Give the backbone structure.
Amino acid sequence: MTTEHAHDEHARPAHIPTGHARTEHIRPDPTVYDLVGVGIGPFNLSLAALCDGAPELRTLFLDARPAFSWHPGLLMEGTTLQVPFLADLVTMADPTSPWSYLNYLREHDRMFPFFFSERFHIPRREYDHYCRWVAEALPSCRFDARVTELEWDEDEAVFAVTHRSADGSLARVRARQVVLGVGTAPVVPEPLRPLLAHHHEGRVLHSADYRTHRTRLAGLDDVTVIGAGQSGAEVALDLLRRQDGDGRGGPFVRWLARTPAFAPMEYSKIGLEHFTPDYIRYFRALPEERRERLVREQWQLYKGVSEETLGEIHDELYERTIGGTEPRAALHPGVVVEGVEVVPPGAVGGGYLLTCRHTGRDEVFQVRTSAIVSATGYAAARPDFLDTLAKLVDWDEKGRYRIDGEYRVALDPRVTGVLYVQNAELHTHGVGAPDLTLGAWRAATILNAAAGRTVLRVPERAAWTTFGVPGTTTATPHHHP
């Protein structure tokens, strides 16, 4: 949002509904909830699970999808979480919770197989199934409920959350506090966006949709993967494995990345202390300009590739060179895609012509490819249902939430309710924002704030590292709504 919008908060009374809500019948819910969550991804599901241990709180969590689903386009066989199983929905905040991954194993008679497998990093497909088990069991989770509007009702001093069910009917619930956990949206390089908008389905796509199109992609002669993170590595590896044993069948696999190297994610024991409450407190106390620079510099903390995946890619390429054979693959770091042209089907086999720049040599080159998979990550996006409330949000100069230490969003003083947000605070809290490691801790922090008491004790210190100057405080003032 622009600065002008951020300061135009008095243009319309905050409690007047807009859009379809004015003309369609809305079924009211008489309950006034203490906390309503919008979105049921792992982070809000973590909060819902921890709230189950605070029965005095009336909670409800809404999601537009028919059931829980976590990155279905990347749930490929053999892929694992990049964090240990202890970073489940609850354990890092409450290991006694019945919603832990270990209890999931017990309930599904998988404890002995898990023990014998000696796994610390679990399959992604099982993590998805575990989360679905929790979401289906918690009575506070309601699916097929797409939130269409979030308003502040000044007369009743509550948030009004309007949602539409699968049959098209509208309902409205009221809440004293709301937590946004709507996740992030796929990001693609600017030159690819027109192609995505013009239905190049299955040929130009984000890695979020890879699994849907992987069989078709495997039958093409040339596929280009863009992005040096874990998703890009996994897509490139999967395509390599779909080549014939002699390397002659299947697609030529080209892997491009703007980073200077295909680098492993930082996974040393001391390095991982950046994913602790201690580092969050340090990061929040830094000037904004320094925070922005740090996030860019620390890409290997959250955008690198696991050493195991890089090793598997190397092994696949090694196999392809036995007997002097050249692998049908190419890896190009330090490359930015600057343009793309559609090649007509009758011209050299059709496909796409990518114009790329090598950043180290500052030279331009072109490659032709049959398909493009953009594994270029995700970013926080403002949901449409927030439009009505947007004039009451105190956005920063770049149109982002101002978020305090307990994940409250800064609002107009007239709003006496509280709005929290999860996984939209990379700019204020640092690299741990999208990481599952801190999910349960953040949820416990929000739960304690929402309950007005310490439901779950959160540690004051979790790292050996002193990130700031010894003997100084890293506390920052809260931006209470």
